[in-house]
User: Fold GIY-YIG nuclease family protein from Formosa undariae.
Amino acid sequence: MKTSYVYFMTNKNNTVIYVGVTSDLKRRVFQHKSKTYKGFTSKYNCDKLVYYETFQDIKLAISREKQIKAGNRKRKITLITTLNPDWTDLSEGWLFDV
Assistant:
């Protein structure tokens, strides 16, 4: 099985939270940072990875993404602050040119 991820991206002021799912977290974060695709994260400058969960089954990851998206902002903030209280960019040091 290929590892999959549910992840949160935010902007520099932590005012917007984007929830996504991917099977290649480093590549996907690079795409968000470089604004490869025009959409929500490029429009709202979501270029900071602040949270992610790892899954061994993409179906479980997609199910978790839907569960998180169905929740409110407060629950997303709680998830982030539990593991990343300073909202630091978890992709810092991953060595990509943006």
